[in-house]
Design a protein that fits this description.
The protein is an alpha+beta fold and 133 residues long. Helix content is 38%, strand content 39%. The chain is built from 5 helices and 7 strands; from the N terminus they run βααβββαβαββα. It starts with a strand and ends with a helix. It comes from Halorubrum saccharovorum. This is N-acetyltransferase domain-containing protein.
């Protein structure tokens, strides 16, 4: 598996994975930092992570992939945050499998997040001091 910057040509594959319109995904690629995990031969997209910076925090705004792929992809916003001296935050729907992957990526629950499509969410965070170690 290789991690690289998302390209506009990845929009179709990411739209299929996320079940979103291609144009929405294309805009995400242009408006955020987006990394994709691809097979070594570049034939298939295995997952992605999108993130941006607001109010001195790196916010993971979207992601998809298997557990180990997500763990690798989350290294990207963590690396950026460490370099810039910021914390990293992600809000996810309450779901044990997703929580396990997020926690395996170094995040700790920091409280409730906003409701998303009627579902409760949890806010996870890594403070810069934790990234420094």
């Amino acid at each position: 598996m290789r991690i690289r910057d998302a390209l506009e040509s990845d929009a179709e594959a990411l739209a299929t994975v996320t079940d979103r319109p291609r144009e929405v995904v294309r805009n995400t690629i242009h408006d955020r930092s987006v990394r994709v995990a691809v097979e070594e031969d570049e034939e298939g997209v295995l997952g992605f992570v999108a993130f941006d910076v607001r109010d001195g925090t790196v916010h993971v705004t979207d992601f998809d992939g298997s557990g180990s792929t997500i763990e690798r992809l989350f290294e990207e916003p963590r690396r950026f945050a460490r370099r810039e001296g910021m914390g990293v935050e992600v809000v996810v729907p309450n779901d044990e499998e997703t929580s396990d992957v997020i926690e395996a990526s170094g995040f700790t629950a920091s409280g409730s997040g906003p409701r998303f499509e009627g579902r409760r969410t949890t806010r996870y965070r890594i403070e810069f001091e934790e990234l420094d170690g």
